[in-house]
Fold each of these.
Amino acid sequence: MNTPYVAIEDLAKHLSVSISTIRGWVRNKYIPENTYIRVVNTYRFHLTDVVDALSAAKDQTTGAPVDTVDAAEQDEDL
């Protein structure tokens, strides 16, 4: 199914973040280049591809094992 490309304002609203955040994610390559079209200073984002890419990135960063030392053990070390 083909979904339309959306403006940066619509993407920001969908993700509940600011437009500045979206611009930062583009600049820092958190949003991959293959998920949007840029013509001069106008961006159009493929919504489902962006969401999928951000979800995959989040899964990779949170997929690491979590240190399970509890607070009591930390206090003993002090």
Note: The longest helix spans residues 47-62.
Amino acid sequence: MSNAISLASARVGTSLTLLRAEGTPELCRRLSALGLRRGARVRIVNPTPGGGRVISVAGSRIAMDASMLKRLFAEELPA
């Protein structure tokens, strides 16, 4: 996987394709239920206090803390 970055390091306004999530099977199922699964297109919308971000996926906005963002890996979509 070339160019894979964690969502924690993605810049606000960036659009990405999710490649993988790291965590327990239960966590991965919960993320999948939120639309955060391989191939999903996500956009970093806003920063939050404490290093988190609001992300947009499948027409929804989800606030995530920095520790969760570090478990999600994606690649930037071409501009």
Note: Strands lie at 5-6, 15-21, 41-47, 53-57, 60-64, 72-76.
Amino acid sequence: MPEALGDAMALRLTRLSEPARALAECLSLQNSPPTRELCQLLVGEEEPRKLLDLLAELARHDVLTSHEEGLSFSSNAL
């Protein structure tokens, strides 16, 4: 990966709150695309609003994208 690209991705991740970064890190360990159901399990099923806030933060920082098919990382390098 080119150094500039790596720096840009690292900057995206450092701007995240700790809960959002932790969720992204857990999801990145999956071999398959992340699902909302998995995200909810990781965040806690009793906190649906918290999940929406974390997903919105990840989208704002161009880490995770939500679409009809589900969720995906905005870059394969993440």
Note: The CA atoms of residues 19 and 30 lie 18 Å apart.
Amino acid sequence: MDDLGNLAHVPLEVEAVLDARFMTVAEVLQLEPGSLIRLNRTAGENVEIRVGGLWVADGDILAVENKMCVRLTALRERP
């Protein structure tokens, strides 16, 4: 970490991606509070951890002190 110098303090966006799906404009316009959006992943499946849009790890969703967290389960190989 010391060899990063000033880069160690550059902020990066870290995302935990549950899933994604395509919907038509008509489907999106029909959404309202209480609507369900069905996803392809099953409950308990890992989420993708992305840094700057790149998939870098997998993780499990947890609740710690009433806050959602992600525990890393695997790091992906660097390209």
Note: The longest helix spans residues 25-29.
